[in-house]
Write a structure and sequence with these properties.
Radius of gyration: 15 Å
Strand order of the largest sheet: 2-1-6-5-4-3
Shape: globular
Distance between the termini: 50 Å
Number of strands: 6
Order of helices and strands: HHEEHHEEEEH
């Protein structure tokens, strides 16, 4: 395994280990200044988030969350990409989510996230979880 693979895997592990940081400022250290985070799906949460919007708009659109947990099951890397497979669990508006998903994280030469794509095994389940109107 090369140095960049080791650095990127270590950065990804640290990113996930930080979990829900007490402040957004604690999480900024993982990102390059010009990063973009892509959220898949068909809800108000879906779309691209650049710089501050990742720390402000995306969390606001996820609310109200009673629970949100991401447990990493595995990571794989090449020279600039780390792919994670995770168990994602949450509770929101009387709905529960328990699915497999993760991220594709692209890193710069300083092992900071430049671009990220979320993915999940059941996008319809995630879309229903983040739908604006309560499930009936």
């Amino acid at each position: 395994m090369g140095d960049s693979q080791r650095s990127n895997l270590a950065a990804a592990r640290a990113f996930y280990a930080a979990g829900s940081a007490a402040t957004d400022e604690e999480r900024r250290r993982f990102f390059a200044s010009d990063f973009v985070w892509h959220v898949p799906g068909d809800t108000d949460l879906s779309g691209d988030y650049s710089q501050d919007a990742y720390f402000t708009d995306m969390p606001a659109r996820m609310q109200p969350l009673e629970e949100w947990q991401i447990a990493v099951e595995s990571l794989a890397a090449n020279q600039e990409i780390v792919v994670s497979v995770c168990r994602i669990q949450g509770r929101r508006l009387g709905r529960a989510l328990d699915t497999t998903g993760g991220h594709v994280l692209r890193f710069d030469h300083d092992a900071r996230i430049v671009e990220a794509w979320g993915w999940c095994a059941d996008q319809e389940e995630v879309d229903a979880f983040f739908a604006s109107a309560p499930a009936r």
